[in-house]
Amino acid sequence: MVGVVLPVMGVFLKDHGWRYDSIGVATAAAGFGTLLLQTPAGIVTDRVSSRRLLFAIAAIVTGACFTLIPLMPSRPGLVDAFLFTAGAAQSFFAPLLGALALALVGHAALNKTAGTNQSWNHAGNIVAALSAIGLVHRFGVSSIFFAVGASSLLAAGSTLLMRSRDLDERVATGLTREDSGTASWKKLLSERAVLFLLVAIFLFHLANAPILPTVALYVKQLGGSDSLMTSTVLTAQIVMVPVALLAGRYGDRWGRKPVMAIAFWILPLRILSYTWVSNPKAMVWLQTLDGIGAGIYGVVVIALAADLTRGKGRFNTLAGLFATALATGGVLGPLISGALVQHMGFKFTFYGFAALALGGAILFTVFVPETRRERAGPLEAKAIAA
């Protein structure tokens, strides 16, 4: 529900007399909280042993912050603080879910499990969007904020379904049972594969983050309806569900690099293709390519972090660094796209971001090696084949 509440929040605050610049500050506060805490969240996740409890706390804090906003919309300072805190709490979700998955199934089955998890994640986004339509129609915009609170309680309670004896907290950090200690920060960041992957991820999301809202604006300019504009979001999410499952399976069979390369190379093709069509419905259909790229990325990036830290530790720290690179691109990309659309038009904007995406694809293909281990032991081979 968090992904649904942010788009409608601007409408809610405007109805309560907020200025557009104040709404922009509030929206930025949530993104800044997430960006600032991504890497620290990964470090904390590596160091704590009560990861189920930490996930429950993060979920409840997120829900509480959004639930309080409609109760005091006339106090901008508090609303900004709530949004920043909610963004900070959300930064723990990705590393904690990755750590819990690794603790439950180990390295061999992680990619497949990540695919299943991400498929459910995208299905949840679809259900949230459809639920939001009904809630707003029946109870008004403020109901979405309370729905976030209810969902957070369910998310926190779901941790009780995982038994502590099924979790290997040592493996959750990237270590195996045979390893004696954690590698240093210096050693982790000195690896060329890690550095090039960080830059490639930054370029990927710098190009990708602003495209969905830009496409929505372009659809509107081409004469598309509001419902058609909204369907750009749902189209991508629907495609992500099966793609995530396939990425989880074929990331083990083909290797991480060829599967992730599909995501990297489909992005410049997708962005460039927007310059070739002028039909709003065709623009929406092209969003299926977004579902392919994002569906693959969300799965394989977890396996890449696990592969690069296997036997060394700091799995969640590296995942946090990847998330920071992604979030940084997500903050800068919309700023650049807004200026380009305003002064250069939509087609020039698409050309520019297609070039950035192409740079990321080339960097990934040339400089990031395959990370999947070629040989697996009997237990790992069994897990991969299952």
Q: Helices and strands, in N-to-C order?
A: HHHHHHHHHHHHHHHHH
Strand proportion:
under 5%
In the CATH hierarchy, what is the superfamily? Answer: MFS general substrate transporter like domains
Number of strands: 0
CATH class designation: Mainly Alpha
Distance between the termini: 32 Å
- The rounded Rg comes to 21 Å
* Number of discrete domains: 1
What is the approximate shape? globular
Task: Classify the helix fraction into a percent range.
Answer: over 70%
Summing up helix and strand content along with how strands pair, one would put the structural category as: mainly alpha
The CATH topology assignment is Growth Hormone, Chain: A
Low-confidence stretches: 375-386
Q: Please tell me the overall pLDDT.
A: 82
User: What characterizes the major β-sheet?
Assistant: none
CATH architecture: Up-down Bundle
Helix count, DSSP H or I runs of 4 or more residues: 17
Written overview of the protein:
The chain has 386 residues and is mainly α. The chain has one domain (2-385): Growth Hormone, Chain: A, CATH 1.20.1250.20. Helix content is 78%, strand content 0%. Helix 15 (315-344) runs antiparallel to helix 16 (346-367). The chain is globular.
Q: What are the salient characteristics of this protein?
A:
386 residues; mainly alpha; Growth Hormone, Chain: A; disordered C terminus
Outline of the structure:
With 386 residues, the protein is mainly alpha-helical.
